[in-house]
Design brief:
Blueprint: H1 19-25, H2 46-56, E1 62-65, E2 71-73, E3 76-77, H3 84-90, E4 101-106, E5 112-118, H4 131-134, H5 140-143, H6 149-156, E6 159-162, H7 179-188, H8 194-216, H9 218-223, H10 227-242, E7 245-246, E8 251-254, E9 275-280, E10 282-283, E11 292-297, H11 304-322, H12 330-347, H13 360-363, E12 396-399, E13 402-405, E14 419-422, E15 425-429, E16 434-436, H14 445-459
Parallel strand pairs: 5-6
Antiparallel strand pairs: 1-4, 2-3, 4-5, 7-10, 8-9, 9-11, 12-15, 13-14, 15-16
Helix pairs in contact: 8-10, 11-12
Bound molecules: glycine and manganese (II) ion (2 copies).
The site of one manganese (II) ion (MN) has 5 residues, from loops.
């Protein structure tokens, strides 16, 4: 076993180390325990998840990497987040996982033994190398303490072996090159267990707090020339303080920016007479994310035309939510949302009638998606289990119809142009229908105005 890599990952501007310094660094260190925050929250549920995967691939070696670091510039990497299926199978979710690999090693006619190939804590002591104080990627003095092999086994309940150049993980089916394995991993994650639903509720609850923070910060955001950025920052503070961060880039879109579905530039000012579309989610430390959108009047009160658009989208969302139940087709809630929108547009005279698909000029995309470890969760599932499939109890998804009335759309009366509204909530499918996880945030016109008023009054 190689105790340390031949070349530590150092910067071009790092000074070389004298023999005397290397010797001095090699000794007189007390042993330290693993920090108290090191734990694997999903420990009790991961064996059953691996057993379900094992049953689908008898006799085959499966290799599920956590993923690699990506360079941001020179010796600075992007923050690391492990591949979601790796996190799901191991419970390991931390920034200390790059390069680690879960191998499901077949034994007997069926069954697998899970083996984790990990880079353990940098060794210390005479002759054991300089990784711990020189390696900018993996050194304990650069990025923090990792578990040693015994500690990692205790944390995960999985046999751990050293990942090094001398013993790379053996080849096998890998999700990056094997569509069937990737699809299966996504499909196994479609139905959430009770622990996962609790994590999603936690993500939603922190997100609701972040939305309250944003409303309280509106006076400062309105005064700043890049108010959208201010809002992104306020939400990001809450996301980082309570969880791992945001589950996707925050969309803070004022006025006509709301007509751009994924407006993440967030470089615009806020205008008191316009709406703010805020689409944001906190990701928990266990990597489950919320995905919530509220469209708020920056004055605290909807104007008549803003209310007209908002109430049509809200009616569409209500129709979509009412269509959720086990056995319903995944498409049904979207179709229910779109029926209401198309009829509303016909009532307004924007469309000749509600038939056909011309309403899509103003809605642009689907009305929801699965939610879990990824914001667009289980996206690699096969069409027959997701897009063309039926809903099942325990699935968690968003319902998020929207109307995007482009500022340059000549089919619209001038008063409607430049208004974008999306209302997005997170729900778990239950035996009877669906339960709203994000019900703590108001959705009706009156509820939003009252909620904004009380938060703004309290912050003055
Ligand atoms: N936040 C991206 C989406 O709503 O799908
Ligand atoms: Mn969404
Ligand atoms: Mn969203």
């Amino acid at each position: 076993m190689a105790d340390s890599p031949a070349r530590p990952f150092t910067g071009s501007h790092d000074l070389s180390v004298s023999t005397e310094l290397a010797r001095f660094m090699g000794g007189s260190w007390a042993d330290t325990p693993l920090p108290p925050g090191s734990r694997v929250a999903a420990h009790s549920v991961t064996p059953a998840r691996r057993a379900r995967l094992s049953a689908r691939f008898p006799g085959e070696r499966l290799v599920i990497p956590a993923g690699e670091l990506r360079i941001r510039s020179n010796d600075c990497d992007h923050r690391f987040r492990p591949y979601s299926a790796y996190a799901w199978l191991t419970g390991l979710t931390g920034e200390d996982q790059p390069g680690h690999v879960l191998v499901m090693e077949p034994y007997g006619p069926r069954g697998h033994e899970a083996v984790l190939h990990i880079r353990p804590r940098s060794p210390r002591g005479p002759g054991s190398g300089d990784e711990f104080y020189r390696d900018r990627r993996y050194g304990e003095f650069w990025v923090g303490r990792r578990p040693d092999l015994a500690e990692a086994e205790r944390l995960t309940g999985i046999r751990c072996v050293h990942l090094d150049e001398a013993s790379p993980p053996p080849p096998g089916r890998e999700p990056s090159t094997d569509r069937e394995l990737a699809a299966t991993l996504a499909e196994l994650r479609l139905v959430k267990d009770a622990w996962e639903v609790d994590q999603l509720q936690l993500a939603v609850d922190h997100t609701a707090t972040g939305f309250e923070d944003v409303v309280r910060a509106l006076p400062q955001a309105l005064a700043h020339p890049r108010g959208e950025r201010w809002i992104e920052g306020v939400f990001g503070l809450r996301a980082r303080a309570e969880g791992n961060g945001t589950g996707y880039e925050t969309i803070a879109a004022s006025g006509a920016h709301a007509c751009v579905l994924h407006w993440i530039r967030n470089d615009g000012p806020l205008d008191r007479d316009e709406l703010l579309l805020l689409d944001a989610g906190v990701e928990t430390d266990t990597l489950y994310t919320a995905d919530i959108t509220r469209t708020l009047p920056l004055s605290g009160r909807f104007s008549p035309v803003q209310r007209q658009v908002y109430e049509l989208v809200l009616a569409a969302q209500e129709a979509g939510i009412a269509a959720l139940r086990p056995g319903a087709r995944f498409r049904d809630f979207h179709l229910a949302c779109m029926r209401v929108i198309a009829e509303g547009l016909a009532d307004w005279g924007v469309l000749k009638d509600a038939e056909g698909d011309l309403h899509r000029r103003y809605t642009l995309c689907g009305s929801g998606h699965m939610l879990g470890l990824d914001v667009h969760d289980c996206a690699q599932a096969r069409a027959e289990t997701y897009l063309d499939g039926v809903l099942a109890e325990g699935q968690v998804l968003t319902v998020e119809p929207g109307l995007y009335l482009q500022p340059d759309d000549l089919t619209l009366p001038a008063g409607l142009r430049g208004i974008g509204v999306r209302i997005e909530d997170d729900l778990v499918v239950t035996a009877e229908g669906a339960r709203l996880l994000s019900g703590a945030l108001p959705r009706t016109v009156g509820g939003i105005e009252e909620w904004m008023g009380s938060l703004l009054d309290a912050s003055l």
